[in-house]
Design brief:
Radius of gyration: 22 Å
Oligomer: single chain
CATH class of the largest domain: Mainly Alpha
Strand order of the largest sheet: 1-2-3-5-4
CATH superfamily of the largest domain: Tex RuvX-like domain-like
CATH architecture of the largest domain: Orthogonal Bundle
Largest sheet: 5 strands, mixed, barrel
Distance between the termini: 39 Å
CATH topology of the largest domain: DNA polymerase, domain 1
Number of helices: 6
Shape: globular
Structural class: alpha+beta
Helix content: 10-25%
Length: about 220
Amino acid sequence: TYISGLGPTLAKNIVDYRRDNGAFTSRAQLKKVPRLGPAAFEQCAGFLRVDGAKNPLDNSAVHPERYTVVESMAKDMGCSVGQLIGNNEKIRQIPLAKYVTAEVGMPTLNDIVAELEKPGRDPREDLEEFTFDERVHTVADLVPGMLLPGIVTNITKFGAFVDVGVHQDGLVHVSQLANRYVADPAEVVKLHQHVQVKVVEVDTRRNRISLTMKGV
């Protein structure tokens, strides 16, 4: 029910289809579920795993749209997709830059490789407990120099917005993300990532918070 692109109705349709037709044997079979159209399939397929499927990628987080990329990688490495999955020695030899296209960037390729190394891993295993600093509840509680835990809520060309628990996200300007030049903030941070930040400036009148990750 909670998977992207689905909801109570489609979730019930999937379960009903499985009850009537037996276990799913491929992700493509999801397209036969009543009312599960192309848009819903595109959103949900990467999250629905098919154990024992003929295509081993059906039991991974690799989206069907990217299967051809993995197939090309396997061909170039002189093995099958099944032989590539979990073979970290071969995976580390993959020249990722070769597979960058207008549709598939390096971040996506890195995600694919991480999944090939640990196929079928439940992403919920990575969840960690997080709590905001108990000293701060409003913007007025913030003081320059404070070190605070935060969560990345948005990434733009000019930096990353971080929630530090005061109902107003602070901005880590691209120049404050690292002790080096950063062309793209997405190189340094990911959405929902837990980070440590330092308060640089607080403008209570305009409700603006400037943060830095440099040296933190």
